[in-house]
Design a protein that fits this description.
Layout lengths: L8 E5 L5 H13 L8 H11 L2 E9 L2 E11 L7 E4 L9 E2 L2 H17 L4 E4 L9 E3 L3 E7 L4 H6 L3 H11 L4 E5 L4 H14 L7 H11 L3 E8 L2 E11 L2 E9 L3 H4 L1 H15 L4 E8 L3 H8 L4 E3 L2 E5 L16 H9 L2 H12 L4
Parallel strand pairs: 4-6, 12-13
Antiparallel strand pairs: 1-2, 2-3, 3-4, 3-5, 6-15, 7-15, 8-13, 8-14, 9-10, 10-11, 11-12
Protein backbone atom coordinates (compact mmCIF):
# COMPACT_ATOMS: atom_id res chain seq x y z
CA UNK A 1 0.00 0.00 0.00
CA UNK A 2 1.28 3.50 -0.85
CA UNK A 3 0.22 6.94 0.24
CA UNK A 4 1.34 10.52 -0.06
CA UNK A 5 3.85 10.09 2.73
CA UNK A 6 6.27 8.07 0.62
CA UNK A 7 7.27 4.43 0.20
CA UNK A 8 4.89 1.52 0.42
CA UNK A 9 3.93 0.04 3.76
CA UNK A 10 4.30 -3.75 3.74
CA UNK A 11 3.39 -6.45 6.29
CA UNK A 12 5.19 -9.77 6.60
CA UNK A 13 5.62 -12.56 9.13
CA UNK A 14 8.58 -12.03 11.44
CA UNK A 15 11.44 -14.51 11.46
CA UNK A 16 11.89 -15.05 15.19
CA UNK A 17 14.71 -17.53 14.57
CA UNK A 18 16.86 -14.65 13.28
CA UNK A 19 18.73 -12.91 16.12
CA UNK A 20 19.04 -9.69 14.11
CA UNK A 21 15.29 -9.65 13.45
CA UNK A 22 14.59 -10.16 17.14
CA UNK A 23 16.98 -7.36 18.07
CA UNK A 24 15.27 -4.94 15.68
CA UNK A 25 11.85 -5.77 17.12
CA UNK A 26 13.11 -5.56 20.72
CA UNK A 27 14.44 -2.08 19.94
CA UNK A 28 11.08 -1.05 18.43
CA UNK A 29 9.23 -2.32 21.53
CA UNK A 30 11.62 -0.47 23.86
CA UNK A 31 11.37 2.74 21.84
CA UNK A 32 7.57 2.73 22.07
CA UNK A 33 7.33 1.88 25.77
CA UNK A 34 5.19 -1.20 25.19
CA UNK A 35 4.60 -4.14 27.53
CA UNK A 36 6.98 -7.03 28.26
CA UNK A 37 4.45 -9.22 26.44
CA UNK A 38 5.32 -7.43 23.18
CA UNK A 39 8.91 -8.60 23.41
CA UNK A 40 10.14 -11.43 21.15
CA UNK A 41 11.78 -12.75 24.33
CA UNK A 42 8.28 -13.36 25.72
CA UNK A 43 7.11 -15.22 22.59
CA UNK A 44 10.18 -17.44 22.61
CA UNK A 45 9.85 -18.18 26.33
CA UNK A 46 6.19 -19.14 25.91
CA UNK A 47 7.02 -21.41 22.99
CA UNK A 48 9.86 -23.08 24.86
CA UNK A 49 7.84 -23.43 28.06
CA UNK A 50 4.48 -24.55 26.69
CA UNK A 51 5.04 -25.73 23.13
CA UNK A 52 2.66 -23.05 21.80
CA UNK A 53 4.19 -21.51 18.70
CA UNK A 54 5.43 -17.91 18.80
CA UNK A 55 4.61 -15.86 15.72
CA UNK A 56 4.54 -12.19 14.86
CA UNK A 57 3.72 -9.71 12.12
CA UNK A 58 5.94 -6.78 11.18
CA UNK A 59 4.86 -3.70 9.23
CA UNK A 60 7.74 -2.01 7.43
CA UNK A 61 8.23 1.08 5.32
CA UNK A 62 11.45 1.37 3.33
CA UNK A 63 13.03 -1.28 5.55
CA UNK A 64 12.18 0.46 8.84
CA UNK A 65 9.74 -1.11 11.30
CA UNK A 66 6.48 0.83 11.46
CA UNK A 67 4.40 -1.67 13.40
CA UNK A 68 4.54 -4.97 15.28
CA UNK A 69 1.96 -7.51 16.38
CA UNK A 70 3.23 -10.37 18.61
CA UNK A 71 1.14 -13.55 18.40
CA UNK A 72 1.03 -16.95 20.05
CA UNK A 73 -0.74 -19.82 18.31
CA UNK A 74 -2.54 -21.50 21.22
CA UNK A 75 -3.92 -24.98 20.62
CA UNK A 76 -5.56 -27.29 23.12
CA UNK A 77 -7.49 -30.54 23.16
CA UNK A 78 -10.12 -28.83 25.34
CA UNK A 79 -10.62 -25.42 23.72
CA UNK A 80 -10.91 -23.89 20.26
CA UNK A 81 -7.56 -22.76 18.81
CA UNK A 82 -6.70 -19.06 18.91
CA UNK A 83 -4.05 -16.56 17.92
CA UNK A 84 -3.38 -14.51 21.04
CA UNK A 85 -1.50 -11.26 21.46
CA UNK A 86 0.11 -12.17 23.65
CA UNK A 87 -0.30 -15.71 24.83
CA UNK A 88 0.01 -16.17 28.62
CA UNK A 89 0.31 -12.39 28.96
CA UNK A 90 -2.08 -9.71 30.19
CA UNK A 91 -0.99 -7.23 27.54
CA UNK A 92 -0.22 -7.17 23.86
CA UNK A 93 -2.02 -6.06 20.74
CA UNK A 94 -0.97 -3.87 17.85
CA UNK A 95 2.02 -1.57 18.35
CA UNK A 96 2.22 0.86 15.42
CA UNK A 97 3.31 4.30 14.36
CA UNK A 98 0.20 4.99 12.28
CA UNK A 99 -3.45 3.97 11.94
CA UNK A 100 -2.62 2.59 8.51
CA UNK A 101 0.01 0.22 9.87
CA UNK A 102 -2.30 -0.86 12.69
CA UNK A 103 -5.15 -1.64 10.31
CA UNK A 104 -2.87 -3.63 8.02
CA UNK A 105 -1.54 -5.68 10.93
CA UNK A 106 -5.08 -6.48 12.10
CA UNK A 107 -6.08 -7.63 8.61
CA UNK A 108 -2.92 -9.71 8.32
CA UNK A 109 -3.71 -11.40 11.67
CA UNK A 110 -7.16 -12.33 10.38
CA UNK A 111 -5.64 -13.77 7.22
CA UNK A 112 -3.04 -15.70 9.23
CA UNK A 113 -5.75 -17.18 11.45
CA UNK A 114 -7.67 -18.43 8.43
CA UNK A 115 -4.53 -19.92 6.86
CA UNK A 116 -3.79 -21.77 10.09
CA UNK A 117 -7.43 -22.88 10.54
CA UNK A 118 -7.61 -20.98 13.82
CA UNK A 119 -11.06 -19.94 15.01
CA UNK A 120 -10.31 -16.57 16.55
CA UNK A 121 -7.78 -13.83 17.29
CA UNK A 122 -7.49 -12.18 20.71
CA UNK A 123 -5.71 -8.84 21.20
CA UNK A 124 -4.95 -7.99 24.83
CA UNK A 125 -4.58 -4.27 24.38
CA UNK A 126 -4.01 -1.70 21.68
CA UNK A 127 -6.68 -0.84 19.15
CA UNK A 128 -8.45 -2.72 16.38
CA UNK A 129 -10.66 -1.75 13.48
CA UNK A 130 -13.92 -2.75 11.87
CA UNK A 131 -15.04 -6.31 12.51
CA UNK A 132 -13.35 -6.60 15.91
CA UNK A 133 -15.42 -6.93 19.08
CA UNK A 134 -14.23 -4.84 22.04
CA UNK A 135 -14.14 -6.61 25.39
CA UNK A 136 -14.55 -4.08 28.17
CA UNK A 137 -15.53 -4.01 31.82
CA UNK A 138 -13.96 -7.38 32.65
CA UNK A 139 -10.41 -6.53 33.72
CA UNK A 140 -8.49 -3.62 35.18
CA UNK A 141 -4.80 -3.00 35.72
CA UNK A 142 -3.26 -1.47 38.84
CA UNK A 143 -0.10 0.61 38.64
CA UNK A 144 1.37 3.65 40.38
CA UNK A 145 4.73 5.40 40.87
CA UNK A 146 6.99 4.05 43.59
CA UNK A 147 7.46 6.39 46.54
CA UNK A 148 10.84 7.89 47.36
CA UNK A 149 11.74 5.43 50.14
CA UNK A 150 10.42 2.73 52.48
CA UNK A 151 8.61 5.09 54.88
CA UNK A 152 7.11 7.14 52.08
CA UNK A 153 5.84 3.90 50.55
CA UNK A 154 4.06 3.04 53.78
CA UNK A 155 2.50 6.50 53.93
CA UNK A 156 1.20 6.06 50.37
CA UNK A 157 -0.98 3.17 51.57
CA UNK A 158 -4.41 4.05 53.04
CA UNK A 159 -4.47 4.09 56.85
CA UNK A 160 -6.29 0.80 57.53
CA UNK A 161 -4.25 -1.12 54.99
CA UNK A 162 -1.06 0.54 56.28
CA UNK A 163 -1.68 -0.86 59.76
CA UNK A 164 -1.93 -4.38 58.31
CA UNK A 165 1.24 -3.91 56.27
CA UNK A 166 3.13 -2.75 59.37
CA UNK A 167 1.98 -5.94 61.13
CA UNK A 168 3.23 -8.15 58.32
CA UNK A 169 6.57 -6.31 58.30
CA UNK A 170 7.01 -7.37 61.94
CA UNK A 171 6.31 -11.02 61.19
CA UNK A 172 9.26 -13.45 61.61
CA UNK A 173 10.01 -13.88 57.93
CA UNK A 174 13.28 -13.88 56.03
CA UNK A 175 13.19 -12.33 52.53
CA UNK A 176 15.51 -13.75 49.89
CA UNK A 177 15.93 -12.88 46.21
CA UNK A 178 17.22 -15.20 43.53
CA UNK A 179 16.80 -16.30 39.95
CA UNK A 180 16.68 -19.77 38.41
CA UNK A 181 18.31 -21.16 41.57
CA UNK A 182 15.06 -20.36 43.43
CA UNK A 183 12.72 -21.83 40.82
CA UNK A 184 11.86 -25.04 42.69
CA UNK A 185 10.97 -23.05 45.80
CA UNK A 186 8.81 -20.66 43.80
CA UNK A 187 7.06 -23.46 41.93
CA UNK A 188 6.00 -25.24 45.13
CA UNK A 189 4.44 -22.05 46.50
CA UNK A 190 2.78 -21.15 43.21
CA UNK A 191 1.38 -24.64 42.59
CA UNK A 192 -0.16 -24.75 46.07
CA UNK A 193 -1.73 -21.32 45.58
CA UNK A 194 -3.39 -21.99 42.22
CA UNK A 195 -4.58 -25.40 43.40
CA UNK A 196 -6.46 -23.66 46.21
CA UNK A 197 -8.16 -21.54 43.55
CA UNK A 198 -9.16 -24.61 41.53
CA UNK A 199 -6.87 -23.71 38.64
CA UNK A 200 -4.43 -26.05 36.84
CA UNK A 201 -0.81 -25.02 37.36
CA UNK A 202 1.35 -23.98 34.43
CA UNK A 203 4.32 -26.17 33.50
CA UNK A 204 7.45 -25.60 35.56
CA UNK A 205 9.43 -25.23 32.35
CA UNK A 206 7.35 -22.15 31.45
CA UNK A 207 8.80 -20.26 34.40
CA UNK A 208 12.27 -21.63 33.68
CA UNK A 209 12.01 -20.37 30.08
CA UNK A 210 10.85 -16.88 31.15
CA UNK A 211 13.74 -16.60 33.60
CA UNK A 212 16.14 -17.79 30.91
CA UNK A 213 14.96 -15.45 28.13
CA UNK A 214 14.46 -12.41 30.36
CA UNK A 215 17.74 -12.79 32.22
CA UNK A 216 18.27 -9.81 34.52
CA UNK A 217 14.80 -8.54 33.62
CA UNK A 218 13.21 -11.18 35.88
CA UNK A 219 13.79 -12.58 39.35
CA UNK A 220 12.17 -14.41 42.28
CA UNK A 221 11.52 -12.96 45.75
CA UNK A 222 10.59 -15.42 48.49
CA UNK A 223 9.49 -15.23 52.12
CA UNK A 224 10.90 -17.94 54.41
CA UNK A 225 9.53 -18.93 57.80
CA UNK A 226 11.88 -21.04 59.90
CA UNK A 227 13.71 -21.90 56.72
CA UNK A 228 10.60 -22.98 54.77
CA UNK A 229 9.29 -21.04 51.80
CA UNK A 230 5.76 -19.80 52.50
CA UNK A 231 5.26 -17.22 49.71
CA UNK A 232 7.09 -16.47 46.50
CA UNK A 233 6.70 -14.16 43.50
CA UNK A 234 8.29 -14.17 40.05
CA UNK A 235 8.56 -10.60 38.77
CA UNK A 236 9.34 -8.97 35.45
CA UNK A 237 11.18 -5.66 35.04
CA UNK A 238 10.26 -3.55 32.05
CA UNK A 239 10.38 0.11 31.10
CA UNK A 240 11.14 1.26 34.64
CA UNK A 241 8.43 -0.85 36.28
CA UNK A 242 8.62 -3.84 38.59
CA UNK A 243 5.77 -6.24 37.80
CA UNK A 244 4.94 -9.09 40.22
CA UNK A 245 3.53 -11.42 37.60
CA UNK A 246 3.19 -14.91 39.07
CA UNK A 247 3.03 -15.49 42.80
CA UNK A 248 1.42 -17.37 45.62
CA UNK A 249 1.77 -18.98 48.98
CA UNK A 250 1.12 -22.24 50.75
CA UNK A 251 -1.12 -23.09 53.68
CA UNK A 252 0.83 -20.92 56.13
CA UNK A 253 0.71 -17.79 54.02
CA UNK A 254 -2.58 -16.46 55.35
CA UNK A 255 -1.68 -16.69 59.03
CA UNK A 256 1.79 -15.24 58.48
CA UNK A 257 0.55 -12.57 56.02
CA UNK A 258 3.50 -13.59 53.89
CA UNK A 259 1.85 -12.74 50.58
CA UNK A 260 1.34 -9.15 51.73
CA UNK A 261 4.93 -9.11 52.92
CA UNK A 262 6.49 -10.22 49.63
CA UNK A 263 4.51 -7.71 47.61
CA UNK A 264 5.54 -4.82 49.86
CA UNK A 265 9.16 -5.99 50.03
CA UNK A 266 9.13 -6.08 46.24
CA UNK A 267 8.50 -2.32 46.23
CA UNK A 268 11.76 -1.75 48.13
CA UNK A 269 13.54 -4.27 45.92
CA UNK A 270 12.28 -2.63 42.74
CA UNK A 271 13.31 0.82 43.97
CA UNK A 272 16.79 -0.52 44.72
CA UNK A 273 16.97 -1.80 41.16
CA UNK A 274 16.17 1.69 39.85
CA UNK A 275 12.48 1.14 39.09
CA UNK A 276 10.14 4.12 39.21
CA UNK A 277 6.77 2.31 39.03
CA UNK A 278 5.05 -0.67 40.63
CA UNK A 279 2.77 -2.52 38.22
CA UNK A 280 0.54 -4.71 40.38
CA UNK A 281 -0.94 -6.29 37.28
CA UNK A 282 -4.36 -7.25 36.04
CA UNK A 283 -7.33 -8.43 38.09
CA UNK A 284 -10.86 -9.47 37.24
CA UNK A 285 -13.28 -6.62 38.07
CA UNK A 286 -14.95 -7.27 41.42
CA UNK A 287 -12.67 -10.18 42.34
CA UNK A 288 -10.83 -10.60 45.63
CA UNK A 289 -7.46 -9.48 44.17
CA UNK A 290 -9.20 -6.49 42.52
CA UNK A 291 -10.66 -5.34 45.84
CA UNK A 292 -7.42 -6.02 47.71
CA UNK A 293 -5.40 -3.83 45.36
CA UNK A 294 -7.93 -1.02 45.71
CA UNK A 295 -7.77 -1.40 49.50
CA UNK A 296 -4.01 -0.89 49.25
CA UNK A 297 -4.54 2.43 47.47
CA UNK A 298 -4.12 1.41 43.82
CA UNK A 299 -6.61 2.82 41.33
CA UNK A 300 -8.09 0.47 38.72
CA UNK A 301 -7.30 1.28 35.10
CA UNK A 302 -9.97 -0.36 32.86
CA UNK A 303 -8.54 -2.58 30.13
CA UNK A 304 -9.93 -3.02 26.65
CA UNK A 305 -9.26 -6.23 24.76
CA UNK A 306 -10.36 -7.17 21.24
CA UNK A 307 -11.65 -10.36 19.66
CA UNK A 308 -12.22 -11.44 16.06
CA UNK A 309 -13.87 -14.72 15.13
CA UNK A 310 -13.55 -16.30 11.70
CA UNK A 311 -16.79 -16.75 9.73
CA UNK A 312 -18.41 -19.96 10.93
CA UNK A 313 -15.84 -20.29 13.72
CA UNK A 314 -16.26 -20.46 17.49
CA UNK A 315 -14.33 -18.22 19.83
CA UNK A 316 -12.76 -20.05 22.76
CA UNK A 317 -13.92 -19.41 26.31
CA UNK A 318 -11.28 -19.79 29.02
CA UNK A 319 -12.88 -17.44 31.57
CA UNK A 320 -12.62 -19.28 34.92
CA UNK A 321 -15.52 -17.24 36.34
CA UNK A 322 -17.92 -18.62 33.74
CA UNK A 323 -20.61 -20.65 35.50
CA UNK A 324 -20.05 -23.58 33.13
CA UNK A 325 -16.68 -24.18 34.79
CA UNK A 326 -17.80 -24.01 38.43
CA UNK A 327 -18.21 -27.78 38.85
CA UNK A 328 -14.81 -28.47 37.28
CA UNK A 329 -13.14 -25.92 39.57
CA UNK A 330 -14.74 -27.46 42.67
CA UNK A 331 -13.61 -30.91 41.57
CA UNK A 332 -10.06 -29.71 40.89
CA UNK A 333 -9.75 -28.25 44.38
CA UNK A 334 -10.51 -31.70 45.83
CA UNK A 335 -7.64 -33.39 44.00
CA UNK A 336 -4.51 -34.06 46.05
CA UNK A 337 -1.94 -31.35 45.38
CA UNK A 338 0.57 -33.92 44.12
CA UNK A 339 -1.91 -35.18 41.52
CA UNK A 340 -3.00 -31.69 40.47
CA UNK A 341 0.63 -30.59 40.07
CA UNK A 342 1.39 -33.62 37.93
CA UNK A 343 -1.53 -33.39 35.49
CA UNK A 344 -2.27 -29.65 35.65
CA UNK A 345 0.40 -28.54 33.16
CA UNK A 346 -1.15 -30.64 30.37
CA UNK A 347 -4.35 -28.59 30.72
CA UNK A 348 -2.82 -25.23 31.61
CA UNK A 349 -0.55 -25.10 28.53
CA UNK A 350 -3.75 -24.49 26.52
CA UNK A 351 -5.00 -21.62 28.70
CA UNK A 352 -2.65 -18.90 27.49
Amino acid sequence: MTDASGPALLVRQADLSDARERARIEAFVAEHGATPFHRPAWLLAIEQGTGQRGLGLVAERAGAIAGWLPLTEVRSALFSPALVSSGFGVGGGVLSESDEAGAMLCRAAQEMAQRLSVSSVELRGGTAGEGWEPITGKHANFSRPLAADHEAELEAIPRKARAEVRKCLRSPLEIVVGHSNHLDTFYRCYAASVHNLGTPVFPRKLFAAVLDHFGEDADILTALHEGRAVSSVLSLYHNGAVMPYWGGGGAEARALKSNERVYFELMDHGRARGCTHYDYGRSKVGSGPYNFKKWQGFEPEPLTYWSWTAPGGTARNIDPTDQSYSASIDLWKKLPLSVATRIGPFIARGLG
